[in-house]
Amino acid sequence: MVLKIINFAGSLCVLLYGMKLMSDGIQKGAGQKLQKALAFVTGNRLVGLLTGMILTMVIQSSGATTVMVVTFVNAGLMTLQQSIGVIFGANIGTTVTGWIVALFGFNFKMETLALPIFALGYLLTIVKRYRKENAGHAIMGFALLFIGLGWLSAAFQLSADSPVVQLLALVQGRGALSILIGVLVGTIITGLLHSSSAMSAIIITMAYNNLIAWEFSAAMIIGSTIGSTIDAIMASFGASPDAKRVALLHVLFNLSTAVIALVIFKPFLAFVDFITPTVSHDHQIIYDITMLHTVFKVLGAILFLPFVKQIVWLMHKLVKDDENAVPTTYRLEFNERMAAESPEGCVFRVQKEMSAFADVVVEMFDSLQDGLQHPDNDFIEHHYARIEQLENYTDQMQDEIVHYLVRCSHLHLSDESKDNVSTMVQLAGEMESMADGCLNIANQIKKAVEREMTFPKEDVDRLLPYFELARQLLYFIHKNVANMQSLTQEQFEFASGIEQQIDNERTALRKIARDRMEKGGDVRAELLYMDMVRQIEKFSDRCFDVAGELGKKVRPMHQRA
């Protein structure tokens, strides 16, 4: 008996590891394309449903999909309303594992081909020339899935006098009590495994070996739906109110569909049995279970999808906004669940924060124009304090983002994501320097106000177009940081052209100021004016350094004069 337990535990571990290896290989092979597809889901509920379904089918993990959804809502990449369709679709997509197991796991004896398939995957991981390491991991995971499934089936081949068989016989055939026990067992084991797909594979294997009957199997499948919500719950810890609403939505949706299925349990099973074609008289139950799993999830989505707006309203009623949130303090929590389920999603998560970082710098720079045009106490009172506050905020952003990226660098990432991590570390430093530059310019304006210095109108008129060139370069890099796309040669040359104009204009403005000093102008005012010109030029240099980071794949980084 002890040996049987060890064999079962080992088989289950191989099965779970195979599923994770396959999922990770697919996610890394796709880079961030899967995350981007999820993040840019439109408000159309059907599009969201299809996106969640296809994504889960591809990565073989509804847990990974729901964790990504919670994280993206937390980051502002997706709205609560958009997430609903994706959650429903993920529930449907997870049923594909059951079909793989039912169709190929037993009839074709896939474990006999698993070793050659595993060897093929391993060869792809060690032959660096073809750069198919991620595909190799996915293939190895696929092979391990069926190896584990074969061993699991062997572990479940128990004699009639086995304690496990006797226990299962004891809890079955007791009407409503057996159904409730089945639901409870399915919920607990799925919660412990963090995988409803693995649980469905276990249930199908047990049914294949005649250990559990049709009704008890169905009850365990329904229970596994409730247990699968554990990932979303864990991902929502410390998250925003909207992210908590998504997690609660996932729990309530799965719980509601489970309750409805239990209320109409007998008719529901009869309906599934009626629509399932007869494939194998000896093991027809495995197809019945798989069909029940699919129909259960599809009908749940059909039932609730028309009420998206009402669901959003209910979630806002159940989870209130945090009125005590302090926007002046920046925090970027590293989600361990996200790192385990979808490391690529962690990188995509921080890309949103880089876009928010750029938003803050744009706000700071735009606030300076009023001070340049009207350097007075009103600027100090209404704009300077805000710029100073935001500069402190960007210091926090740099610290938190870089710390987050360092942790990301230790994850198993695709080459694309590794490059993005390295680039974003540099960008965080550059943008913090840009924020410092904004504060430096604000300090020059403040100094002019406090010393009651005034600049001739023609000086201000010359400075504003110069300032506008720097703003144009800032808006250019802001757009491309938000997309985190490498610049094309034409884009890089565009940025380079603006930078050259700024350099030329800086030289002309400084010459004009020096000429005025030589003719007896106010030395302090002219020096302050020249320093302001220099600070704007330094700010544009920082902007171009960001363009250089984004464009380093197309040409060497610009060398400042």
Note down, in words, how this protein is organized.
The chain is mainly alpha-helical and 561 residues long. Mean pLDDT is 82; it is low at 553-561. 47% of the residues are buried. It is elongated, with a radius of gyration of 30 Å. Helix 7 (111-126) packs antiparallel against helix 8 (133-155) and helix 20 (377-408) runs antiparallel to helix 21 (415-450). The chain has helices at 2-29, 33-39, 45-59, 62-75, 80-93, 96-104, 111-126, 133-155, 163-171, 176-193, 196-208, 214-227, 230-235, 241-263, 265-275, 284-304, 308-318, 336-341, 343-373, 377-408, 415-450, 457-483, 489-518, 523-550. 79% of the residues lie in helices and 0% in strands.
Q: Mind summarizing the main beta sheet?
A: none
For the termini, the CA-CA separation is 78 Å
Give the overall silhouette. elongated
Order of helices and strands: HHHHHHHHHHHHHHHHHHHHHHHH
Into which percentage range does the β-strand content fall? under 5%
Q: Provide the low-confidence segments as ranges.
A: 553-561
Give helix % range. over 70%
Structural class: mainly alpha
Rg calc: 30 Å
**How many β strands by DSSP?**
0
- Provide mean pLDDT, rounded: 82
The total of helices stands at: 24
